[in-house]
């Protein structure tokens, strides 16, 4: 994946949306933005945010779960 996509995901999560650990996030991307969706999902996992995606992709789910620390809130609401 192009490193610029990871850089853009960093900007979206860190600066544009200012996502913090425990934030509930809905990720919606089109097929043309698949790589960006994967990069954002990974960044959200690193951050410890709770992810709900409207884009069905096993790769997005794997990226998030792989980057997450493994401790999930049983009742995030």
Determine the structural class based on helices, strands and strand pairing: mainly alpha
Distinct helical segment count = 3
Which spans of ≥5 residues are poorly predicted at pLDDT below 50? none
Terminal CA distance reads 33 Å
Instruction: Work out the number of β strands.
Output: 2
Rg result = 12 Å
Order of helices and strands: HEHEH
Largest sheet: 2 strands, parallel
Strand order of the largest sheet: 1-2
| Average pLDDT rating | 88
What is the overall shape? globular
Percent range for helical residues? 40-55%
Number of domains: 1
- Percentage beta strand: 5-15%
Short synopsis of the structure:
This protein is mainly alpha-helical.
Task: List descriptors.
single chain, 2 strands, two-stranded parallel ribbon, 10% strand, 49% helix, 77 residues, mainly alpha
Q: What features would you describe in this structure?
A:
This protein has 77 residues and is mostly helical. It has one domain (3-67). The chain is built from three helices and two strands, in the order αβαβα. A two-stranded parallel ribbon has the order 1-2. α1 (3-16) crosses α2 and α2 packs parallel to α3. The longest helix is centred in the N-terminal third of the chain and has 14 residues, at 3-16.
List the helices and strands and how they pair.
Layout: H1 3-16, E1 24-27, H2 34-47, E2 50-53, H3 58-67
Parallel strand pairs: 1-2
Helix pairs in contact: 1-2, 2-3
């Amino acid at each position: 994946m192009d490193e610029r996509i990871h850089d853009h995901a960093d900007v979206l999560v860190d600066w544009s949306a200012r996502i913090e650990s425990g934030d509930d996030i809905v990720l919606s991307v089109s097929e043309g933005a698949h790589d960006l969706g994967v990069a954002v999902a990974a960044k959200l996992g690193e951050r410890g945010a709770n992810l709900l995606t409207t884009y069905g992709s096993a790769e997005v789910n794997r990226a998030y779960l792989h980057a997450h620390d493994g401790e999930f809130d049983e009742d995030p609401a």
